[in-house]
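Hi all, long-time lurker, first post. I run a small reading group and we've been trying to get comfortable going from sequence to structure in the token notation. Rather than ask abstract questions, I figured I'd post a concrete chain and ask someone more experienced to write out its structure so we can walk through it together at our next meeting. Sequence below, copied exactly:
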Amino acid sequence: MKTSLLFFIGLCPISLFAQINESDTLKTKASLSMTGFYQQGNVETVIFRAQSELSFHLWKRSIFKTNNSYVYQEFGNQKADEDILSRNFLYLYPDKKVHLLVLGFLSTNFRRKIDLRYLVGAGVMFQILSNKHHWLKL
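-- Answer (accepted) --
Happy to help. Here is the structure in token form:
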């Protein structure tokens, strides 16, 4: 019984099908991942990590995607890291062969003593290849 169950669990991922870019068809997509670690002993250690992703259609012909992460680390009651990274993209007319994008990045870095830095920009994307199973954008 155990062997057949392990065999079934091992083969399940092979039989699953999924999309590569869900934002092409889904109206909203969200995910959240959090990990914590605490250890006592010679050196007390605390590590916390969180990551989130959100993608949704703002209006009919635009998609907004954001990816955010947070890291906190402490060793021996001494803070080692506390970093934030936020990457944000706005795609305008993503179904067209040539479409616009606007991006904004925001980050902090404890070790480098960066309280806040940001980057804002705009650009153009070219869809070089697009068929049922493959796509390539530049």
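A couple of things your group might point at:
The chain has one helix and seven strands.
The helical segments are 2-11.
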